[in-house]
Amino acid sequence: MAADQAPTGPDTNAGHIDATGFRFVVNWPEIHPDDAAAIKAFWVAEGALNDEAVMAQRVRQVVMHARTADGAVAGVCTAIPVTPSRLAQPMYYWRTFVGARWRTSPLVMSLLKRSCVLLEEHARAHDYPCIGVLLELENDRFKERGRMATWFNPRFVYIGRSDRGLDLRALYFKGARLKPPAQSA
User: Fold this and answer.
1) How far apart are CA 168 and CA 46, in angstroms?
2) pTM to 2 decimals?
3) pLDDT tens column, 80-116
């Protein structure tokens, strides 16, 4: 692995390449500058993002990223606290981008499972600033394969459609309690 590709954030398995062939690097709640640069370069190379201002904002939301055995960034997931009007509860809005070469691999599900555990641990340790994770499914693969009302690993439930007409799924953290309704002015 080239020195400029070495993961610098905490690794969820201390440098271990898991059965999927990836190493998962934790970047939450703060990303190391070297990881940020590698992720931005990945987004540009894959055609995902290229606006520096957008990338600077998005990279601060990175929860974790996956690297191949040779150190290349293969996928990234982000989360940002949101309070959707329909739910009126704070949730982490989760996004992911997986490089074209790895889209048929189990990488997206590995990132989802691992990042949900990480976000839940963080929420529990900080008195639940968010009560769960919210997915807005843009990928056609999920539309075809994820038609069950409840997914079991991780346990996401269908909660309706977004304003963009996309399926919404929510995972609620164990022990999280609903926040009081916001006071009207």
Assistant:
1) 26
2) 0.86
3) 999 999 899 999 999 999 999 999 999 999 999 999 9
Class of domain 3-172: alpha beta
Report how far Cα 65 is from the mean position of its chain's Cα atoms: 9
- The pairing of beta strand 73-82 with beta strand 91-98: antiparallel
Residue 174 pLDDT > 70, yes or no? yes
The secondary structure of residue 141, as a DSSP letter, is: H
Taking alpha carbons only, the member of 23, 27, 22 closest to residue 9 is 27
| Residue in 100, 114, 31 with CA at minimum distance from that of residue 72 | 100
Distance CA(63)–CA(84), nearest Å, equals: 20
Q: How many residues does the chain have?
A: 185
Any idea where the domains of the chain sit in the sequence?
Answer: 3-172
Distance (Å, whole) CA 85 – CA 89: 8
CA 67 – CA 65 distance, rounded (Å): 7
